[in-house]
Specification:
InterPro entries: ThrE-like_N, ThrE_Dicarb/AminoAcid_Exp
Strand content: 5-15%
Membrane topology: Multi-pass membrane protein
Distance between the termini: 69 Å
Structural class: mainly alpha
Helix content: 55-70%
Number of helices: 10
Pfam family, one: ThrE
Main location: membrane
Subcellular location: Cell membrane
Number of domains: 2
Largest sheet: 3 strands, antiparallel
Order of helices and strands: HHEEEHHHHHHHH
Oligomer: single chain
């Protein structure tokens, strides 16, 4: 692989890591362009959408190289984004070798996240404290702790099976509503609505909505609209799961909820 081929592959790989871990479209484009210009590429053009990267470079001889990367899976890992941003700044400020950058990107890409036990514990407390934030009682707090753990366990298990995100969010919403209704019915919890609202905050696509707004403001209309559509369908999935459970509960209990 010649130098220009390696440059474009490294730039695209850096962009992929950022995009795949929740980064904004403009950040991906800026990082790839910054890396290419650091190695004296004459011209760079990059187009990024939430599910793909397209980058083209022109070398000193006027030859054009293009590369397309398809993004299949996306998650949220802000630490990886921060590491790639730090690396891109270091590339611009000092002369790092292509081999070093490639190895560093591989290291960042293979960074291990928190294990499932910590994620489940964190999700449990997030749901509990959101419930308190929305005015729930201490009893509601402890119910939300259980719901948060259940939602995260379901999410981790189904993600291993590569289940569709729409189904995962629907099931998470259904689990939160069912446990909340049962807890109030058994006088364990006090406010079903606050428990449900606090618990489903784990599923609310806050980062997706934020990125949709930022991309739209930055002029990346395709990315902005697609991210907004994604957030809209996640909200629908949560509403469907929660609504179905509440509907069936009303049906089988005769519309009486303690």
């Amino acid at each position: 692989m010649n130098k220009n081929n390696k440059i474009i592959h490294i730039a695209a790989e850096a962009g992929r890591i950022i995009l795949q871990n929740g980064g904004e479209t403009y950040r991906v484009e800026e990082t790839m362009i910054k890396i290419c210009y650091a190695f004296n590429v004459r011209q760079v053009n990059a187009i990024v959408i939430p599910t793909g990267i397209m980058i083209s470079i022109t070398d000193e001889k006027g030859e054009i190289l293009s590369l397309i990367k398809r993004i299949h899976n996306r998650t949220i890992n802000l630490e990886k984004i921060s590491q790639v941003n730090s690396l891109s700044r270091a590339i611009a400020q000092s002369s790092l070798s292509l081999d070093y950058i490639e190895n560093r990107l591989n290291t960042i890409d293979n960074m291990t996240s928190y294990n499932n036990k910590i994620l489940i514990l964190a999700a449990s407390f997030v749901a509990g404290f959101f419930t308190l934030l929305f005015g729930g009682s201490i009893q509601d707090f402890f119910v939300a702790l259980i719901i948060g753990a259940v939602i995260k366990i379901i999410s981790c298990f189904l993600n291993r099976l590569n289940i569709n995100e729409f189904f995962i969010n629907s099931l998470g919403g259904a689990a939160s509503a069912l446990i909340a209704l049962i807890s109030v019915h058994l006088n364990i919890g006090q406010s079903k609505d606050k428990i449900i609202i606090g618990s489903i905050m784990l599923l609310v696509p806050g980062l997706v909505i934020t990125n949709a707004i930022r991309d739209t403001i930055a002029g990346d209309l395709v990315s902005g609209v697609s991210r907004a559509t994604e957030a809209f369908f996640i909200a629908i999935a949560i509403a469907i799961g929660t609504g179905i459970v509440i509907k069936f509960w009303f049906h089988f209990t005769g519309g009486i909820i303690q």
